[in-house]
Amino acid sequence: MFDDKGLACLNDIHRAAGFSKNQRPSDWMRLPTTHKLIEAVLNRVTGKSRNWEKSEYRSVTYTKVGVGTFADVRLALAYAEYLNPNLAVEVREVFLRYKAGDATLADETLQRASPEANEWAAKRAMGRVVRNEYTGELSERGVREGYHYANCTNETYKGLFGKTAKQMKNARQLQPNDNLRDAMTMKEIAFVAASEALSVERMQDEQSSGYTECRDATAKASQALSAAIEQDRKNRRLRML
Q: Taking the model in full, what pTM does it have?
């Protein structure tokens, strides 16, 4: 059971687990380690390291007479681990895999996720891999981050979509700090990734050096790809006549 603020009832966890009286929520709450956990969660929730107000403390945990002890889900998970050491080991293994950047963990998660979540993750992954290769190439060729990177990227967008990043964000009613590529379709991301990959090839073949040459190489690559896409669309329309 959860209350209206999303805090979990620890007594329900205890009953579901079927553990003994000396592992009740009240017993766990008295442990020094639990006090430290509560303080850590309070720090995360409030941004304060001490001097918490009563309302702030109750936003993390409280006891309702006749009902039970309620706690933030992070504390509820810690209590479940306290009841079940096997769960504690499993949680720690997942955490270590996450910290190590284990890609198989993400894949296992996505297997249980919705089709929409899988599409979002695919867009992010594909865009990130090619984007890193592209910006890495710019850096190696003397292009400075910031304004110059943005201008080079805009050459990709202008060639493919006829708009700068700012114009595309405005058209999609995005905020200035929103990630444009998160709002793109899978097809658009694929076009951008292909264009940036082609830009890298062109910069390497032409031995581009500095901002202007790299920007021009990017523009040529996006224009060439856009022309190929439009020609293919034209050919398909003609075949349908």
A: 0.63
